[in-house]
Amino acid sequence: MTAGPRRRFLAAAGGLAAVAAWPLTAAAQLNRTLPNNMPQVIARLVGQSKVNPGRIKLSLPPLVENGHLVPLSVTVDSPMTEADHVKAIHVFTDKNPLPEVLSFYLGPRAGRANLSTRVRLADSETVVAIAQMSDGSFWSESVHVVVTTAACLEEL
């Protein structure tokens, strides 16, 4: 074969390979987006412990235009002493592809159980914050946020 027909053959073979692989990549994308299982993930975290309302303040705007960078702050009422402190703060959402958005681990030397960050929200959804205390108790608060332009979702 000469260089011209060889190049045409390789281009045609590459085009056929790309066309044949496209349905596989689309199927892989669909398989990668698992259904959100927030209740099961929270149950694995807390085990048999009861999750109590209170002691934690979750702040998000009730309406956001864009779900890509939503400001979030969490404050837990705790003296942050060796005997009584926040061990961890977990934040979950019920519509993101992965329900556990973030986890912060703290100790008595943190001084305050107060954090601020930005998160991505897939759609209008409920955000749940759970504080794990040093005595083994769990405290929570949830907030519903309306998102006009969703994040975390990709069109094929």
Shape, please?
Answer: elongated
Strand tally is: 9
How many helices does DSSP assign?
Answer: 2
In round numbers, the mean pLDDT is 85
Task: Explain what this protein looks like in three dimensions.
It is a single chain. This protein is α+β, with helices and mostly antiparallel strands. The protein has 2 helices and 9 strands; from the N terminus they run ααβββββββββ. 25% of the residues lie in helices and 38% in strands. The radius of gyration is 23 Å and the shape is elongated.
Summarize the structure.
The protein has 2 helices and 9 strands.
Summarize the helices and strands and which ones pair or pack.
Elements: H1 3-32, H2 38-46, E1 51-53, E2 56-59, E3 63-66, E4 70-76, E5 86-93, E6 100-105, E7 114-119, E8 125-133, E9 138-149
Parallel strand pairs: 1-9, 3-9
Antiparallel strand pairs: 2-4, 4-7, 5-6, 5-8, 8-9
